[in-house]
Write a structure and sequence with these properties.
The protein is built from five helices and seven strands. By secondary structure, the protein is an alpha/beta fold. It has one domain: Oxidized Rhodanese, domain 1 (3-Layer(aba) Sandwich), CATH 3.40.250.
Length: about 110
């Protein structure tokens, strides 16, 4: 499995399934959106090889970008090649937002 739908991700959250939610939107895109999917942590996609070893290996990783295209698919493929159970969110952050799922505002001055 290399992808996950918005409905599946919401069910994982609701049922308390253990997974890691990684947001790899470009910083300017994330700042413009001014919101995160609950439980996600932002990582600079250009620095994947810097933070890859911090991704827990004992649970699936779900990768989010703006639209579920190159950034999240590439990051998920790279992490899978490194032996992790990684998948991308179909339609990305925009699909989550457009389906009116819960979002958390990014606090002013937050620099993850």
């Amino acid at each position: 499995m290399d992808r996950i739908s918005v409905c599946e991700l919401e069910e994982w959250q609701r049922t308390g399934r253990a997974f890691t939610l990684l947001d790899v939107r470009r910083r300017q895109v994330r700042d413009k959106d001014a919101a995160d999917i609950p439980g996600s942590t932002w990582h600079n996609p250009d620095e994947l090889f810097t933070w890859k070893d911090a991704v827990p290996r004992d649970r699936p990783a779900v990768i989010i970008c703006a639209h579920g295209h190159e950034l999240s698919q590439g990051a998920a493929a790279t992490l899978r090649a490194l032996g992790l159970d990684a998948r991308y969110l179909i339609d990305g952050f925009s699909g989550w937002r457009d389906s009116r799922r819960r979002l958390e505002p990014i606090l002013n001055g937050e620099q993850p």
